[in-house]
Amino acid sequence: MLCKYLQPKTTLRKKIPRHIAIIMDGNGRWAQKKGKIRTLGHKAGFKAVKEAIKFAIQNKIEVLTLYTFSSENWKRPKLEVVSLIKLFLFALKNELKYLNKYNICLKVIGDLTFFSEELQSCIYQAEKITLNNSGLILNIAANYGGKWDIVQGVKKIITAVHNGDLNINQIEEKTFSQYLSTSSLLPVDLVIRTGGEKRLSNFLLWQIAYSELYFTDVLWPDFNRFVFQDAMSYFSTRNRRFGGLIKD
Is 38 labelled a binding residue? Predict the structure, then answer.
């Protein structure tokens, strides 16, 4: 299910990222520091999600991608995994009015076949209901992995070549990007990771080759508009050369 396709603008906004991706890390540690079970940290993190969405809308960010559940998260304790999935299901069922109120178009990327039929149905319905919303695109990465995305892209290309829809000589970087789960979205300008870790954790590996990276020690439940603004301010200082020379 695709939201409106974003074409590059003729006049680019300087120093303002159009697509921001966030690795929301630190829910469990936040809960443990407060003497609570880890699952309560995920519930607290849901409030931070709404804060981030609100800030993105206010600052006219066009795409916000949130890494909610990685393909490696299945390795966590069963109770925590179940809690994460229940929270995702709850949000899909109860936040549709919020999404429509603020003209948000929902998109979910990842290998959804691992989820229950109920959850897959809720995802499909939420995408369908918000499809024509023309505001912020909220892109949720669920059971997502960057390596998985690249592999499934390769499989699609092989199928297209086998069916005669694509010539092998047509395959280049731009072509390959069209077979990834983010094909309808703008390039990622800024990646934010909370929680103090400084790694990408298998997130959008192809898509963030030239993204700016911002790391903060703030744990995700404590993420707010001030932290988000700090990341935006950092981005505004960057000279994005994309491998070229600094322009005068």
Answer: yes
